[in-house]
Design a protein that fits this description.
heterodimer, B: 117 residues, mainly beta, 6-stranded mixed β-sheet
Chain lengths: 113, 117
């Protein structure tokens, strides 16, 4: 089984721009969660999508948004980038029903200049 | 509110010895799950072990075991026979409810483990 894939792996943007990150879950998995990892704040939950619906949401501003498509692939968008958005963005996939294990992708490292 | 605390920012262990990584948690929910993940320098998070709040026995997965003490709200990870490849960051995490409660994990700050040859 192929693992979780995230594209792109690395991204450099400037303040004020917007960015879209993509995550393809493991085949058959319907839940995709997004996390932001920074040295200062650690790992923080952004949101979770299950069957194209946002099921859980963390405490991030509205500049952070996401969506999920019918094939379970998910995208995360950050608008009006700020320097503090520089982070490793990880997505995790799980079956979403009765499963305990979440499988993480390799992450997208975003640098905002 | 749920909270995970890992009080050891860094630890050293000699190869082939056992090591315990501490994790305490705080929650008022009766149903929750506890996880440990390993993050090598490559960045990918690797699932190690899971313990449900209602599980009667401590979870084990190969060289990993979870020392679950519910009354003390602790979920320490024990790695037996450490290997050089165990050098990484280790994160304790908690999720409210059982497996169908969604993917929202609350993470601790992590412990960086270094295995010495």
């Amino acid at each position: 089984k192929a693992g979780v894939t995230q594209t792109p792996r690395y991204l450099i943007k400037t303040r004020g721009q917007q960015v879209t990150l993509s995550c393809s879950p493991i085949s058959g998995h319907r839940s995709v969660s997004w996390y932001q990892q920074t040295p200062g704040q650690g790992l923080q939950f952004l949101f979770e999508y299950f069957s194209e619906t946002q099921r859980n949401k963390g405490n991030f501003p509205g500049r952070f948004s996401g969506r999920q498509f019918s094939n379970s692939r998910s995208e995360m968008n950050v608008s009006t980038l700020e320097l503090g958005d520089s982070a490793l963005y990880l997505c995790a996939s799980s079956s979403g029903t009765g499963a305990n294990e979440q499988f993480f992708g390799p992450g997208t490292r975003l640098t905002v200049l | 509110a749920q909270k995970i605390t890992q009080t050891q920012p860094g630890m050293f262990v000699q190869e082939k010895e056992a090591v315990t990584l501490d994790c305490t948690y705080d929650t008022s929910d009766p149903s929750y799950g506890l996880f440990w993940y390993k993050q090598p320098s490559s960045g990918e998070m690797i699932f190690l072990i899971y313990q449900g709040s209602y599980d009667q026995q401590n979870a084990t997965e190969g060289r990993y075991s979870l020392n679950f003490q519910k009354a003390r709200k602790s979920a320490n990870l024990v790695i037996s026979a450490s290997q050089l490849g165990d050098s990484a960051m280790y994160f304790c995490a908690m999720r409210k409810g059982g497996g169908n409660q969604g993917g929202k994990l609350i993470f601790g700050q992590g412990t960086e483990l270094s295995v010495k040859p």
